[in-house]
Amino acid sequence: MDQRTYELYLTETGERKVNLLADKARKQIENILKNINQSDQEKLVDSMLEIRRILNI
Fold it and tell me: Each residue of 7-18: pLDDT tens digit?
């Protein structure tokens, strides 16, 4: 670590809230993707990977 880095810790309450938010996000994604056929889902994933490659993330 250098001077620009900080370690943060969540309380148990904070962890529960983060987990609830993550679950809600997963459910939203599932709801969006359930109406997209397999071929288009694969194209979507490929496009997302290309975006990550371009952005170097």
Answer: 889 999 999 999
How many residues belong to the chain?
57
The one-character DSSP state at 4 is T
Q: Please spell the DSSP secondary structure of 7-54, one letter per residue.
A: -----HHHHHHHHHHHHHHHHHHHHHHTTS-HHHHHHHHHHHHHHHHH
* This prediction's pTM: 0.61
| Per-residue exposure over 17-47, b if at least 16 CB sit within 10 Å of its own CB, e if not | eeeeeeeeeeeeeeeeeeeeeeeeeeeeeee
Residue 12: closest CA among 4, 20, 3: 20
